[in-house]
Design goal:
The structure is a homodimer. By secondary structure, the first copy, chain A, is α+β, with helices and mostly antiparallel strands. Chain A has 9 helices and 11 strands. In chain A, the strands form 3 sheets. A 4-stranded antiparallel sheet of chain A has the order 1-8-3-6. A 4-stranded antiparallel sheet of chain A has the order 2-7-4-5. In chain A, a hairpin with a 5-residue loop joins strand 4 and strand 5. In chain A, helix 6 crosses helix 7. The longest helix of chain A is centred in the middle third of the chain and has 27 residues. The interface between A and B is large, with 57 and 57 residues. Chain A binds a DNA duplex through helix 7.
DNA sequence: CGCAAATTTGAACCAGCTCAACCGTAGTGG
DNA sequence: CCACTACGGTTGAGCTGGTTCAAATTTGCG
């Protein structure tokens, strides 16, 4: 299916999706060429714009190149729960391939640049490039893992451990897409948003962040996260990075066989 | 890709997976034939047996025909969180297609009969039958929706509403795979398990169930769920069945195009 | 029948909630 | 340039949904 492409290092990869995939697959020049071909229609979205309305119809599928997007449920009570956060390299609204209506709102936390695909167009592309379906299949599994881990957090971790855990997750996910300066990380998420990710009140969110700061674990002010003690942060979170599946297990042979599969 | 098969009604479908798929896709005799061909290796698993150990290696992929399987995380503290519950018609350990190690334990709540696939074998089958990958793709999306909804529950619903919500979910999911007598439903899940699904203590689980009984909403004793007032149950849960995606939107044409896709 | 597991109930406690007030910073319009 | 507003963050005080502990009861099962 694939001819042998030249292997490349993370540093030379341009697109976020390729950096992310390279955490698991062996990304070579062939794969790069596929995404070059496919990612043609790029869009810019303004901060606070809504990609998909809750109870609205799905439109296109997006692949984020830069910026943060959240998927959330607004409840009748006025409460809100953020279900997941999409970072560069993540697909968004993949459900549009199958479903017509969304149960969640998709909105931009920052200015966002993304590649856009009409869902039938994405279908065609997968037909042309079977390796794409491997990428999609993995992206699905990756997202599923994160949801499962969030369920564990919400069900059985304290507010403080949840906070530590989600920070660990963001750090690891940003690392993989090549954000440098991990010690001073921009997290464009308000305390309000954090509370709605973690299922706690905004007041308690604030107190938890202040406590973590007081204890010398992290500092988070004005969207700037500084990690003072990463070991301690991970220990308090009970963080095991394995669920992010950024340990490369797929060589080109397996990639090819998965491509044939999915 | 597919020749025109004869359409069939839910009642005549034998396999749980076909009943489940028929909730969304237009299942015809061709699709039936595919599963007849693929589901050859069937296994029986005893109640309480462990399919996959937490931190253990994945083995085969399973498709449940009868019985209940849960996926759970056992934490260092001794706490446990059940992430999802697999019912007849659900795939289990699909991650084995990509990942070698599991972050969760998979265990049988009842005696289980399931079809077993070596992961490479499943790959071959998908190569032969593109419609299979549509089924897998949808199964993934379906599971993802349930996880997202559980996150909403754990994050923003009270213990009582969570309880009502999972019960609504179980009822709907069992309905679709053809369980009759919805008023007197066997739910082979202990209060202990329920507590670990909902992220609450076993004591509070018990009190919540007793309160729902006292209020004439449901009765749940000895694994027998009786719904006294389904409207009220759904209202208290804030249950919107849409996320289960059991509203058929796929005719054979779309099925075929998705098959080409995924 | 007898053991082990699951359920039930009460009582005391606490993590996280709500309410309420206040602060800081960034517009924005006069 | 200042007054005004809006929005996010901060902090204290009191409250409550759900926890933990402990003990009794029921049920499943060999």
């Amino acid at each position: 299916m694939l001819t042998e492409g030249e292997h490349v290092g993370l540093a030379t990869l341009t697109r976020a999706i390729l950096k992310k995939l390279s955490g698991f697959f062996d990304v070579d020049t062939n794969i790069q060429a596929i995404f070059d071909d496919v990612c043609k229609s790029s869009v810019d979205l303004a901060a606070n714009s809504v990609l998909v309305e809750q109870s609205g119809d799905y439109g296109d599928v997006f692949l984020i190149e830069s910026g943060w997007v959240v998927r959330s449920r607004n409840m009748a009570s006025g409460a809100r729960q953020i279900v997941n956060v999409a970072l560069p390299g993540d697909f968004v609204a993949l459900n549009a391939l199958l479903f017509s209506q969304s149960d969640f709102e998709l909105s931009c936390k920052t200015d966002v640049t993304a590649y856009r695909f009409a869902s039938n167009e994405l279908g065609d592309a997968i037909g042309r490039y079977p390796a794409l379906s491997a990428a999609l299949f993995w992206a699905n599994a990756h997202e599923e893992s994160m949801l499962a881990e969030r369920i564990v957090s919400l069900g059985r971790r304290s507010a403080r451990a949840r906070t530590a855990h989600v920070l660990c997750e963001f750090i690891s996910r940003l690392e993989i897409v090549g954000v440098e300066d991990i010690e001073r990380l921009i997290i464009p998420i308000s305390q309000d948003d954090f509370a709605d990710i973690l299922g706690i009140s905004i007041v308690h969110m604030n107190k938890t962040l202040r406590a973590l700061e007081r204890d010398g674990v992290i500092s988070f002010r004005n969207a700037l996260l500084m990690v003072m003690n990463r070991d301690r942060l991970e220990a308090e979170a009970g963080f095991e990075a394995g669920y992010l599946h950024f340990t490369r297990r797929m060589d080109s042979r397996s990639w090819r066989s998965i491509s044939a599969v999915a």
